[in-house]
Amino acid sequence: MPTQTLLNTVEAIQTRRAVKRYDPDFAMPQADMETLLSLTLLSPTSFNIQNWRLVLVTAPEIKQQLREAAWNQAQITDSSFTVVFCADLRAAEKNPERYWKNAPAEIQNTLVPMLENFYKDKPQLQRDEAMRSCGLAAQTLMLAARSMGYDSCPMVGFDPVEVAKIIDLPEDHVIALMVTVGKALEPARPRGGQLPYHDVVIQNRFTGNS
């Protein structure tokens, strides 16, 4: 069970911010860390492919290496942990029966061949799916962290080639982003500026009003 007081979903969404300054002396309970990662693994994926691979970085020496590969951004070493969100580009080819092992036989017999054919020989679609899956999982982690009283920061400011070397990324995998999680050292800054609702929410289609 989480050791923090839980926020509701709306509060977590409203108060989630990209926090870059963390208390380096705070030690997150192992149970909370495991809860956060377990919740992240409930994120949706197309065909239930679960193609994300989450590299949980807690070792100080590896955190320092990641920091050096990320323009020396201190949140990597000061936060409780960093997750490197990766994805297996060939997940659809690797024993796809396991994604539906608990489903009725008729569902398995329909979805497993469909899954294999949908991604086969389509590298751009495989990569697009990897990015979608990792984005959804990263948001789940950040909202779960906020609901438990922690803060987070999504990161794309790093050298993916260097990070791949640090984490020994397999050749058929790709890195999408990193997320740091920990206890904020100070309140987040005010939001920089939200675009008006009607500038970004389009009703039905871009042309016309219906």
Can you describe this structure?
- With 210 residues, the chain is α+β, with helices and mostly antiparallel strands.
- 39% of the residues lie in helices and 14% in strands.
- The protein has helices at 9-15, 30-40, 60-68, 75-78, 105-119, 123-147, 160-166, 197-200, and strands at 52-57, 81-88, 151-155, 173-182.
- The protein has a 4-stranded antiparallel beta sheet with strand order 1-2-4-3, sandwiched between helices.
- Helix 2 (30-40) packs across helix 6 (123-147).
- The longest helix is centred in the middle third of the chain and has 25 residues, at 123-147.
- 29% of the residues are buried.
- The model has no long low-confidence stretch (mean pLDDT 94).
